[in-house]
């Protein structure tokens, strides 16, 4: 029987990875800034015209601009944290699914999880990590 298990992927921070991530964050910030400017332009356009339906549009556009400003602020914080991280720090890049074959009689390792460690686009380590007991049983 095959089961699907989540595996955490972590990248070791190198200067080249930091530069790539900062460039990606810069692109995201530029895109957000363009969207914010477009929303503000539309907001001004709707404010100049009168009407109840326009007020709803003004409110909606204001909310959308605020969401993007919040994302922009979050990106600024991520950039600051990334700049402060030491080279060699492991950064979590999410999870992938692993298909595992399980047969009757196999040792069950349900409490453990695995991590894949990547450095410079190469897998350098696969480690088993004991998970904390989260099922609430004694």
Cα gyration radius (Å): 23 Å
Helix content: 40-55%
Strand order of the largest sheet: 2-1-3-4
Q: Percent of residues in beta strands? A: 25-35%
Instruction: Report the major sheet.
Output: 4 strands, mixed
Please mark out the parts with pLDDT under 50 across 5 or more consecutive residues, or reply none.
none
Q: Can you tell me the overall shape?
A: elongated
- Distance between the terminal alpha carbons, to the nearest Å? 29 Å
Number of helical regions: 2
Arithmetic mean pLDDT: 88
Domain count: 1
How many beta-strand runs? 4
Give the helix/strand class. Answer: alpha+beta
Protein name: YlqD protein
InterPro entries: YlqD
Region (Disordered): 47-74
Pfam families: YlqD (PF11068)
Topology of this protein?
Blueprint: E1 2-12, H1 15-48, H2 52-84, E2 90-101, E3 112-119, E4 122-130
Parallel strand pairs: 1-3
Antiparallel strand pairs: 1-2, 3-4
Helix pairs in contact: 1-2
Account of the protein in words:
It holds the Pfam family YlqD. Residues 47-74 are annotated as: Disordered. This is YlqD protein. The protein has helices spanning 15-48, 52-84; strands at 2-12, 90-101, 112-119, 122-130. By secondary structure, the chain is an alpha+beta fold. The protein has one domain (2-130). Strands 2-1-3-4 form a four-stranded mixed sheet, with no helix packed on it. The mean pLDDT is 88.
Nutshell version of this structure?
The chain is α+β, with helices and mostly antiparallel strands and 138 residues long. It has one domain.
């Amino acid at each position: 029987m095959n089961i699907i298990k989540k595996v955490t992927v972590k990248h070791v921070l190198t200067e080249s990875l930091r530069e790539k991530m900062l460039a990606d964050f810069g692109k995201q910030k530029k895109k957000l800034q363009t969207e914010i400017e477009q929303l503000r332009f539309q907001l001004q356009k709707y404010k100049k015209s009168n009407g109840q339906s326009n007020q709803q549009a003004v409110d909606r556009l204001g909310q959308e601009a605020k969401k993007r400003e919040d994302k922009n602020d979050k990106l600024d914080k991520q950039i600051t944290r990334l700049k402060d991280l030491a080279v060699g720090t492991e950064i979590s890049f999410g999870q992938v699914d692993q298909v595992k074959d399980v047969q009757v009689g196999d040792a069950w390792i349900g409490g453990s999880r695995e991590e894949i460690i990547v450095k410079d686009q190469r897998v350098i380590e696969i480690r088993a990590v004991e998970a904390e007991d989260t099922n609430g049983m004694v």
